[in-house]
């Protein structure tokens, strides 16, 4: 198995299209623009830019006279990102380049702001990529990483979806997930809970003014599903329920299960404990899906995530000291 994924493949690309639609609330981005001290005309580098999400999300805070450089290893995504940017990059320049996060094609001290989102969590050597981000940022410039702590998030979601689980099942589920996450990291697919370690990485790289915020979105989905986000959640739940029956959905599930098993075993889990857990998990998930189906059909679907564990971490590259 290769330890790098192709994010232009349909089942992955849909994540960076769909999940991005409601990832950060507009008022949060507004607040962050002040917290980050963004200014028009900045030179910005976005590492692992995908379709350029961070570019269009923050454009109105830096784009007038600004320059956005999106870098990614996927030429297919970049092609699409470049086309999309024609719509959002008015008043400044957005350009895209194929390259490697471990070896950024920019000179030292190039940018005012270097950023990434859900990149470090997928890398075998996140510190190395972060060091490159620091290198290309000018002294006094800003580094921002938006990354999740997914292992913790999973425990919250688990208790927030309105279904009661036994404590035994919850503990077992969490233990399995920890083993899976250890295996994922060991196989070079990155740290699923990297967010909480990034402030330390920034500190070790000499950054100053390190600070961190957590996405404050904590939605409760409920009828009559009036906001765009609520409508989207209803659509997502309905689609997921239907997808279970079609081949596309089944293929995604099979792929997910195969990878889950590989990571779990690599993390030190045994085959017998995997099958024992899966038997239980399949039953629990079947019950959940039945309940979900009933609630969607009766127009009474309610769900909660219990809050996000998606962080925005910032640090500043120290100014050069001028000798007297
Ligand atoms: C989860 S996607 C995030 C995309 C975008 N930042 C966003 O939030 O929508 C991760 C991206 O990082 C890119 N990537 C992964 N490893 C990389 C590497 N070593 N160098 C450059 N890009 C990389 C992938 O191609 C993919 O587009």
Query: Segments where pLDDT lies below 50 for 5+ residues?
Result: none
Query: Any idea of the CATH class of the largest domain?
Result: Alpha Beta
Q: What is the multimeric organization of the chains shown?
A: single chain
Number of β-strand runs = 9
SSE order, one letter for each helix or strand? HHEHEHEEHEHHHEEHHHEE
Distance between the termini: 56 Å
Write out the CATH superfamily name of the largest domain.
Vaccinia Virus protein VP39
Q: Mean pLDDT, as a whole number?
A: 91
Q: How many helical stretches?
A: 11
Provide the gyration radius in Å. Answer: 21 Å
CATH topology (level 3) name of the largest domain: Rossmann fold
| CATH structural architecture of the largest domain | 3-Layer(aba) Sandwich
- Strand content is 15-25%
**What is the helical fraction, as a range of percent?**
40-55%
Main sheet specs: 7 strands, mixed
Shape: globular
Structural class: alpha/beta
Strand order of the largest sheet: 3-2-1-4-5-9-6
Bound molecules: S-adenosylmethionine
Overview of the molecule:
By secondary structure, the chain is an alpha/beta fold. The strands form two sheets. The chain has a seven-stranded mixed β-sheet with strand order 3-2-1-4-5-9-6, sandwiched between helices. The protein has a two-stranded antiparallel ribbon with strand order 7-8. β2, α4 and β3 (93-98) form a beta-alpha-beta unit. α6 runs antiparallel to α7 (167-186). Helices cover 48% and strands 17% of the residues. The protein contains eleven helices and nine strands. It is globular, with a radius of gyration of 21 Å. Bound molecules: S-adenosylmethionine (SAM). The site of S-adenosylmethionine has 19 residues, from loops.
């Amino acid at each position: 198995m290769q330890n790098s994924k192709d994010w232009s493949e349909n089942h992955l690309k849909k994540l960076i299209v769909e999940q991005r639609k409601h990832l950060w609330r507009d008022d949060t981005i507004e607040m962050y623009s002040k917290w980050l001290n963004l200014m028009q005309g900045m030179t910005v580098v976005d590492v692992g830019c995908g379709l350029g999400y961070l570019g269009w999300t923050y454009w109105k805070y830096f784009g007038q006279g600004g320059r956005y450089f999106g870098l990614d290893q996927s030429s297919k995504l970049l092609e699409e990102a470049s086309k999309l940017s024609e719509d959002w990059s008015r008043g400044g320049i957005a350009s895209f380049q194929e390259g490697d996060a471990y070896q950024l094609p920019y000179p030292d001290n190039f940018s005012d702001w270097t950023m990434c989102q859900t990149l470090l969590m997928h890398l075998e050597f996140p510190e190395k990529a972060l060091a490159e981000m620091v290198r290309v940022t000018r002294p006094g410039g800003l580094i921002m990483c938006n990354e999740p702590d997914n292992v913790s998030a999973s425990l919250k979601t688990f208790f927030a979806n309105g279904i009661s689980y036994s404590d035994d099942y919850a503990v077992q589920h969490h233990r399995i997930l920890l083993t899976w996450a250890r295996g994922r990291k060991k196989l070079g697919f990155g740290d699923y809970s990297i967010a909480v370690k990034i402030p330390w990485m920034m500190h070790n790289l000499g950054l100053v003014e390190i600070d961190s915020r957590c996405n404050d979105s904590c939605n409760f989905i409920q009828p009559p599903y009036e906001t765009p986000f609520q409508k989207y959640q209803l659509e997502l739940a309905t689609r997921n329920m239907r997808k279970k029956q079609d081949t596309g959905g089944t293929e995604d599930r099979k792929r997910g299960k195969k990878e889950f098993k590989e990571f779990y075993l690599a993390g030190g889990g045994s085959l017998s404990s995997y099958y024992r857990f899966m038997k239980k998990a399949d039953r629990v998930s079947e019950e959940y899906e039945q309940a979900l189906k009933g609630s969607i059909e009766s127009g009474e679907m309610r769900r909660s995530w219990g809050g996000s564990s998606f962080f925005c971490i910032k640090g500043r590259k120290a100014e050069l000291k001028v000798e007297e």
